[in-house]
Amino acid sequence: DAGVIQSPRHEVTEMGQEVTLRCKPISGHDYLFWYRQTMMRGLELLIYFNNNVPIDDSGMPEDRFSAKMPNASFSTLKIQPSEPRDSAVYFCASSKSGTGPMNGYTFGSGTRLTVV
Amino acid sequence: KQEVTQIPAALSVPEGENLVLNCSFTDSAIYNLQWFRQDHGKGLTSLLLIQSSQREQTSGRLNASLDKSSGRSTLYIAASQPGDSATYLCAPRMGSARQLTFGSGTQLTVLP
Q: Which of left, alpha, beta for B53 (phi over 0: left; psi -120 to 50: alpha)?
């Protein structure tokens, strides 16, 4: 398996622009998570999905952020309009329900977002 | 709300030393705990997943222990190598939820 795939790897955008981050989870994983990492706040959960349905979006900072999962193999995180304080590394992760050593998280390589 | 603390925040050791990284969490009702490493500017790589019913989990030179009742986990690295230099993160998962809560990590430097 190719693992969790995120695109783009780097994104530089101007304040006020719309930004869309993409994620392809591991095939067969039914949970998908979006995290944000900053120096000040570390890794923070933004939202997670189970079977394409959003379960907990309490970490989404404000209405400018939205996430969708139209099918089991694709999710997007959108920021509109973007602000400089949104600059961070955004990670997508997936996992499989059930117990045992195969049910841990697998992370993507992240998208480094810079808003100028 | 689960809070995770990792001590020390940074550690520098000469190559070949055995070392222990500590993780403590405030809510002991965890389902499992995962240790990750993060190389500078990179994503997270899973090292070990230890279930709440387990006391230890081993992979190569790495050994993770879990004392759920006291809210502690340790990651033991044997015979450290410069390639082990990275930030190590522990992340318990609560039994009632699916998401992981991350500590701020221990930044390890192994000097050749």
A: alpha
Burial of A9 (0-12, 13-18, 19+ CB in 10 A): exposed
Q: B58-67: per-residue pLDDT in tens?
A: 999 999 999 9
Instruction: With CB atoms and an 8 Å threshold, state whether B99 touches A48.
Output: yes
Candidate from B42, B45, B99 with C-beta closest to A56 = B99
CA distance A72 to A21: 16
pLDDT given at position B110: 97
Strands of chain A, DSSP E: 5-7, 10-13, 19-24, 31-38, 42-50, 53-56, 65-71, 74-79, 88-95, 106-107, 111-115
How much of chain A exceeds pLDDT 90, in percent? 85
Q: Cβ contact (<8 Å) for A43 and B89?
A: yes
pLDDT tens per residue, range A78-114: 999 999 999 999 999 999 887 666 678 999 999 999 9
Q: Which amino acid, residue A13?
A: T
